[in-house]
Amino acid sequence: MKHIDTNTLKHLGITFGLSLVGGIYGACAAAGASITKEWCDKQSYGHWCWVDLAADTIGTVLGLVANKLIMNWIS
């Protein structure tokens, strides 16, 4: 089983940032970016990592929650 490494943290951070800044549109961009990043990783490293995709999902959800909290706080 693959462990959490710096690549996994990159997946989490990028999807969090996109969702935080862009809201639902950012989440859509994050979904596309996560699949593209994992496909590129598969081409480079020869394996598809479900842990990275789980990190993408977690990052996206956390980013959307943070975006919602900030938008509610501002308004």
Give a nutshell description of this structure.
The protein is mainly alpha-helical and 75 residues long. The protein is built from 2 helices and no strands.
SSE blueprint:
Blueprint (H helix, E strand, L loop, with lengths): L5 H40 L4 H25 L1
Please characterize this protein's 3D structure:
The protein is mainly alpha-helical and 75 residues long. The chain has a domain at 24-74. The chain has helices at 6-45, 50-74. The mean pLDDT is 91.
Q: Assign an overall shape.
A: elongated
Helix content: over 70%
CA gyration radius, whole angstroms? 13 Å
Low-confidence stretches: none
Topology, number of strands: 0
Largest sheet: none
Pattern of helices and strands = HH
Task: Provide key terms for this protein.
mainly alpha
